[in-house]
């Protein structure tokens, strides 16, 4: 499977079958984010993931879900989290919307340094080894991958 690396390059990675998975359809409402976050926390803790990694993963999930609620508040949001112990954690959010909603790389922070908002994707990028965006049947999917216990594969030469 190939995913886009944070620096714009392509990375080739092997995804093994996850040991723990969470998949939910939630309403595009702010109150749904906290419910999904609590369920994700339970799943990560039940998988034996350490506290720091749980906190980082929950922050990624919260930012992606909050963005989906704010920028594409129509219909259901699909939230998935897969964990392959000792290998990786994948967080995916799919919502109504298009790739046009996304800022271009590397502009994932606010235009103004002192702006009170606009750091969500920059936070996701900082806490992930790879972030990918795709259009799935007219819906926007954002996936954040973090390697756990193994070094990320070297980025393949763009080509």
What's the short version?
This protein is an alpha+beta fold and 159 residues long.
Name a few traits of the molecule:
disordered N terminus; 28% helix; alpha+beta; disordered C terminus; 3 helices; five-stranded antiparallel sheet; two-stranded antiparallel ribbon; globular; 159 residues
Structure description:
The protein has helices spanning about 30-45, 50-70, 120-125, and strands spanning about 1-5, 10, 20-25, 75-85, 90-95, 130-135, 140-145. The chain is of the alpha+beta class. The strands form two sheets. Strands 3-4-5-7-6 form a five-stranded antiparallel beta sheet, covered by helices on one side. Strands 1-2 form a two-stranded antiparallel sheet. Helix 2 (about 50-70) runs antiparallel to helix 3 (about 120-125). It starts with a strand and ends in a 12-residue tail after the last strand.
Walk me through the topology.
Layout: E1 2-4, E2 10-12, E3 20-27, H1 30-46, H2 51-71, E4 76-84, E5 88-96, H3 120-126, E6 130-136, E7 139-147
Antiparallel strand pairs: 1-2, 3-4, 4-5, 5-7, 6-7
Helix pairs in contact: 1-2, 2-3
* Uncertain ranges: 1-5, 155-159
Please state the structural category. alpha+beta
For the biggest β-sheet, the strand order reads 3-4-5-7-6
Biggest beta sheet attributes: 5 strands, antiparallel
What spatial form do the alpha-carbon principal axes imply? globular
Give a count of the beta strands, DSSP E runs of length 2 or more.
7
Residues in helix, %: 25-40%
Order of helices and strands: EEEHHEEHEE
């Amino acid at each position: 499977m190939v995913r886009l690396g944070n620096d714009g390059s392509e990375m080739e990675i092997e995804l093994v079958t996850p040991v723990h998975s969470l998949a939910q359809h939630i309403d595009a409402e702010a109150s749904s984010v906290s419910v999904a976050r609590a369920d994700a926390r339970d799943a990560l803790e039940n998988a034996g993931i350490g506290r720091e990694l749980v906190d980082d993963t929950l922050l990624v999930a919260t930012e992606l879900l909050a963005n989906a609620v704010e920028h594409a508040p129509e219909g259901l949001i699909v939230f998935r989290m897969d964990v392959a112990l000792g290998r990786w954690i994948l967080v995916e959010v799919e919502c109504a919307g298009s790739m046009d909603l996304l800022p271009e790389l590397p502009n994932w922070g606010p235009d103004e340094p002192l702006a009170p908002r606009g750091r969500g994707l920059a936070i996701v990028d900082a806490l992930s080894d790879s972030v990918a965006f795709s259009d799935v049947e007219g819906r926007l999917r954002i996936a954040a991958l973090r390697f756990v216990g193994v070094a990320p594969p070297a980025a393949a030469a763009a080509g």
